[in-house]
Amino acid sequence: MHILQLVGIGLTATVLVSVLRPHAPQFAMMVGLIAGIVLLVQVVQNMESVIRTLTELSTSANVNQGFMSTVLRIIGIAYIVEFAAQVARDAKEGALAGKIELAGKVGIVILALPIITGVIDSLIHLLP
């Protein structure tokens, strides 16, 4: 989808949610959630070409594919956590949003640990 279509979906949903919220808050929440899911799915589908290009670049640069896979997973976690936290904030659950973000950060650190270890090992071998 073209960026203008994505923005159009977002703005249309925003207007619908603003109109529905005072009269039917449960429907407003559902409209916002559905619009968010549609936007997220479309963005993820558009990321396929970016991922393919990054994979080709990492292959030509002889970068370990495990590292590239881990970096892409970290990026995915960041986007999904941000989406979930925003949904929680829209539902007026700021504390829960903070906990979702904390869980995402911990997940990212866990995934990044092998990369950090690899970098430290490389530095140790470079030093005399």
From TrEMBL:
<dbReference type="InterPro" id="IPR014211">
    <property type="entry name" value="Spore_III_AD"/>
</dbReference>
<keyword id="KW-0472">Membrane</keyword>
<keyword id="KW-0812">Transmembrane</keyword>
<keyword id="KW-1133">Transmembrane helix</keyword>
<dbReference type="Pfam" id="PF06686">
    <property type="entry name" value="SpoIIIAC"/>
</dbReference>
<feature type="transmembrane region" description="Helical">
    <location>
        <begin position="27"/>
        <end position="45"/>
    </location>
</feature>
<dbReference type="InterPro" id="IPR025664">
    <property type="entry name" value="Spore_III_AC/AD"/>
</dbReference>
<protein>
    <submittedName>
        <fullName>Stage III sporulation protein AD</fullName>
    </submittedName>
</protein>
<feature type="transmembrane region" description="Helical">
    <location>
        <begin position="106"/>
        <end position="127"/>
    </location>
</feature>
